[in-house]
Write a structure and sequence with these properties.
Radius of gyration: 23 Å
Largest sheet: 3 strands, mixed
Structural class: mainly alpha
Strand order of the largest sheet: 1-3-2
Oligomer: single chain
Strand content: under 5%
Number of helices: 27
Length: about 600
């Protein structure tokens, strides 16, 4: 989903540019018809934090709904790290002073969440500044910023800010220097410091290969609007980015490291940032046990699918490959996704899984540039602060026909897969999670500052699990395949980053045992090794936390347990960390029902 895949990729690119403090502002509280007084007070405090850091990456602050920054651009000025730390220290002092005076326990809890978020962010910023040589995909960041501002859901009056932003990027605006020149300074000013971890060569090379597609994507994004007068400035920016990428190839690429593995300290910091508290060794054991158990389930289910489909094999790997051969392409692809999403809505309502929103979930295919930036399916989330009716969209990577007009076989284009992918990205997964926050008045602290991958991706994998029993048999098998992938992630990711397995062997496991195609297997390896190390472990980790919470809740409530009430309650809490969510379930869900 975009909350985790696209924006987290942006987050770490910004981190490499020392813009950590604001890139995370892509998540915040949305609009509701009624906002309780305590939520309003909490949000006022949170908004002060967002405003205080918006100067560093205003493109993404504006996308999140922080007003007044649409025309502004990345701060890559001198002493960037020192200025960011000063802002964080000031924010922490403000929050701690407010906490001492706060009498409402709900607001106090939100303030504590914000304090922890600020401290964690400052720690990550310090460690990366002290240990890592900066690197970031400037072309990707600029493309992401313009794509967000020029989204079809953004009013034209706001889109006009892109014309101002263009001039600032190129240095044509008075008082501004070309962003590409500032980026060169930031990427090289610490290059002589001994011992800093260099960027991974594979990441830099891949960014260079994909940059022309995203530069072309900038042209497409502007052409799709009603804006006028951008052509000359966009041509200048295109030339600057092309020259900049040539500079990266000549200057940065030769000064990279060959191994993607991270030092243990940095890898454990990554785990913490994503909400994963276990040690790498514990994750490896959890994943390997889960992997074997799930694979056994697949071995038992595959013969039933084979019998139903008339296949002559019962091997789960061969059955999955035969299911993949049933490809849907062209206009029929999105129609099939919409059909299955509609059927999932019927299942959710019929089985009482969770309360459905009034409006339908939406799905579309990505553009080639969007796919270059994010080659995996994800949820595209609108601004959540001050949302005025914008909606999340489930995005499927673009699939291009071959030169001869035929279609390639894609892991995103066979119906058996669409069931669990739609349950994960749309309903009852991510789309429902974020629609609930947009429409339900969740506080900014619980939607933004409590955010981590474990509580977001954990819910989406849990959403797959609660819908799996009602899918057709082939959908159930692919749902298990996806769960097998998440179990593989939680042990392959740490093993790769600790140097315990080669990338070639990890890819073999993904292709032969999980049955991914070559493209998606390589995307997984890229993800574990340099796109977002440690993030992929959060899926299965968060899923296990939720399953444990449900088991303990059912055990205590017995016949008073209602899964729809339980799931509605979980979604209404926002993105609380596991320990706070467990406490909320005990005090506000279990205890009142036991008292009835």
């Amino acid at each position: 989903m975009k909350t985790d895949k696209t924006i987290k990729a942006t987050f770490f690119a910004c981190l490499a540019f020392s813009a950590l403090l604001v890139c995370s502002t892509s998540f915040a509280q949305g609009a509701s018809n009624f906002t309780p007084e305590w939520v309003q007070r909490s949000n006022e405090i949170a908004y002060k934090l967002l405003e205080s850091t918006a100067q560093f990456a205003p493109e993404f602050a504006g996308q999140s709904g922080v007003d007044g920054y649409d025309e502004d651009v990345f701060d890559l000025g001198d002493e960037l790290f020192e200025r960011q730390i000063a802002v964080s220290e000031k924010n922490i002092a403000m929050l701690e002073a407010l906490l001492l005076k706060e009498e409402d326990p709900r607001v106090a809890q939100d303030i504590e969440i914000m304090i922890k978020s600020e401290k964690d962010g400052m720690e990550a910023n310090r460690i990366n500044y002290e240990r890592v040589l900066p690197y970031g995909n400037l072309t990707g960041l600029i493309f992401a910023g313009f794509r967000g501002l020029l989204d079809k859901q953004v009013p034209l009056e706001r889109q006009k800010a892109a014309l101002v932003r263009l001039k600032k990027y190129t240095g044509a605006a008075e008082g501004y220097e070309a962003l590409t020149e500032l980026a060169k300074l930031r990427l090289t000013e610490r290059s002589e410091i001994p011992g800093l971890i260099k960027p991974f060569s594979g990441e830099v090379q891949q960014d260079l290969e994909r940059s022309p597609v995203m530069i072309q994507g900038l042209q497409s994004v502007f052409e799709a609007t009603e804006l006028e007068g951008y052509e000359e400035d966009l041509a200048v920016l295109t030339e600057q980015l092309t020259d900049y990428n040539d500079w990266v190839k000549e200057t940065i690429l030769p000064n990279t490291r060959d191994s993607a593995a991270l030092p243990r300290e940095l890898y454990e910091l990554q785990l913490k940032n994503y909400g994963v508290d276990d040690s790498p060794e514990a994750l490896i054991r959890t994943g390997q046990v889960g992997f074997m158990n799930i694979r056994n389930e697949m071995m038992a289910l595959a013969p039933l699918v084979a019998k139903q489909k008339g296949y002559e094999t019962s091997n789960y790997r061969e059955v999955i490959r035969l299911l993949k051969a049933d490809q849907v392409h062209g206009d029929e692809l999105m129609a099939k996704y919409r059909e299955i999403m509609s059927e999932l809505d019927v299942i959710i309502a019929r089985e009482g899984l969770v309360s459905l929103p009034d409006e339908p979930a939406r799905v579309r295919m990505a553009t080639p540039a969007e796919t270059a930036q994010q080659p995996a399916a994800h949820l595209d989330i609108p601004r959540l602060v001050g949302n005025t009716g914008e909606f999340p969209e489930f995005i499927v990577p673009t699939i291009e026909p071959n030169e001869d007009g035929s279609w390639p076989e894609s892991d995103y284009a066979f119906p058996a897969m669409m069931w669990t992918l739609s349950a994960h990205e749309a309903r009852p997964g991510h789309e429902m999670q974020f629609t609930t926050m947009i429409r339900g008045g969740v506080s900014t602290a619980r939607a933004l500052f409590a955010f981590n991958s474990a509580n977001v991706e954990g819910w989406a994998l849990y959403a797959e699990a609660i819908t799996k029993p009602y899918m057709p048999l082939e959908g159930q098998l692919i749902s298990l395949q996806d769960r097998l992938l998440r179990a593989a992630r939680i042990w392959l990711d740490p093993m790769l980053n600790l140097g315990l397995i080669s990338a070639e062997e990890a890819k073999r496991v993904l292709m032969e045992e999980v049955v991914l195609d070559d493209l998606n297997a390589q995307t997984e390896i890229d993800r574990y090794t340099f796109r977002s190390p440690a993030q992929a472990t959060a899926y299965y980790y968060g899923y296990e936390n939720l399953q444990a919470l449900r088991a303990s809740t059912e055990l205590r409530l017995k016949d008073k347990f209602d899964q729809q009430e339980f799931h509605d309650f979980l979604l209404a809490q926002g993105l609380l960390p596991p320990e706070i969510l467990n406490k909320a379930v005990t005090e506000k869900f279990i205890t009142p029902r036991l008292a009835d």
